[in-house]
Fold this sequence. Notes:
The protein is α/β, with parallel strands linked by helices. The chain is built from eleven helices and twelve strands.
Amino acid sequence: MLIDGHNRKVNYLRISVTERCNFRCQYCMPEKPFSWVPHENLLSYEDLFLFVKASIDEGITKIRLTGGEPLLRKNLHTFVKMIHDYAPSIDLAITTNAFLLPHYAQDLKDAGLTRLNISLDSLKKETAHYIAKKDVLDEVLAGIEAADKVGLKIKINCVPLKDVNDSEIIDLLEFCRDKNYEIRFIEFMENSHATVKQGLDSKEIQAIIAQKYKFTKTQKEGNSPSQSYMLEDGYKFGIIEPHLDDFCSDCNRIRLTAEGYLIPCLYFEDALSIADAIKKKDINEAVNILKNVLKNKPEKNKWGEENTSTRAFYETGG
Ligand code: SAM
Ligand code: SF4
């Protein structure tokens, strides 16, 4: 079992398989300049898998593949299959913008994937274009449909932004309720790479939903950062509320970047690399580094101090 320096059980590994992206979402990435990690610095699937196996053996039970846009990494389904074949009971999912899903949904399903978290911020073509800085909505909706068709379970993530997509909160909720997808609204987290400045907080999101629906707060599920709410008809939606002070108390996650940095917290600059250890196939050393990073995982993020972060979400995987 993996325990951090503050006695929290860590069982959730988020792997950013690439920091590159085909979108430029205003809350996540600047349009330029970029200094992408050179391809030769990326850990291969084989290298990543060595670490994944060791982490599963140490107690990781939940893995997310994210990015950047994870589907930009060639043959992601082969990595999914490696993980699934090694530990079929692992809770494995991908977080994606869905643009490339029409091409890959079937391969991912065949590789053993059962579910996806998909970012969908607007159902209006112009607004989706404005947020992603690219005309994306048709492909995103086709991607969601393709995933649904092959039987992948879908959760939708949406970041409500002031005067951008906040008028669509109810439309997005109803779209997801009709399709039987859970939707989670994520409070915009300030960071120095974002080109928008203002998101809606949980209270503002709730106030908008309350204009049309009655809902109640329900029990939080496990260590999920998402607070669940239920409409009167039983449909459940979530709000991820990082601006609330209790976000860190039961944090169970550790993040690995495509280059091999282990990051203990989104809003904390320290990180250690497992790249050399993994390339030498020194698994014991990689596990020691993991335990070291966990020992130094901060009790609380450092966000409160400056209310922003220089660490990019597209690098850490959000
Ligand atoms: N490209 C994929 C996607 O968009 O789903 C995966 C990577 S993205 C960095 C992972 C998640 O982080 C997405 O749900 C996105 O909405 C969220 N995210 C990115 N920047 C954010 C910010 N500043 N505040 C809150 N959520 C953010
Ligand atoms: Fe790309 Fe996802 Fe960031 Fe949007 S949120 S720019 S899709 S990594």
